[in-house]
Amino acid sequence: MRGLDAYISHVHDVQMKYATIAEFRNHLAAYLKRVERGERILIRRRGEVIAELRPSSGEERTGRPEALQERLEALERKGFLRRGTQQWPEWSLRPITGEPAPVLEALLEERENGR
Questions:
Q1: Contact 45, 54 (CB under 8 A)
Q2: Assigned domain for 85 exists
Q3: Higher model confidence: residue 43 or residue 101?
Q4: In the 8-state DSSP scheme, what is residue 115?
Q5: What domain range includes position 44?
Q6: Does pLDDT of 63 surpass 80?
Q7: Structural domain includes residue 55
Q8: pLDDT of 3-43, one tens digit each?
Q9: What is the DSSP string of 11-74?
Q10: In this predicted model, which residue has the larger pLDDT, 115 or 38?
Q11: Is residue 92 part of a domain?
């Protein structure tokens, strides 16, 4: 990461780093570690900033299993999610009977019959 520039942002009081796309790609793991420590990385192409990599918010960052459970419950309350019952329907547990149908042959037959 030789070519890494840095500056202090007086607006946010946060240290930011610049990296070119090639530097970022070649040292991805190192940049991600810096972001995990709270740094922000500005990615440049031909001198122009095209992206910013920054730490996620505290809620997204937490690895607690309870946080996931809370998030799922919130999505369920809002109607965005319906969790399964963890029980398979009876019909799905029965063995499949009969001869297997070759898919390609059935497709070609359907094409020939114009269906």
A1: no
A2: no
A3: 43
A4: -
A5: 1-79
A6: no
A7: yes
A8: 444 444 434 444 578 899 999 999 999 999 888 888 889 99
A9: TTTEEEEEEEHHHHHHTHHHHHHHHHTT-EEEEEETTEEEEEE-PPPHHHH---HHHHHHHHHH
A10: 38
A11: no
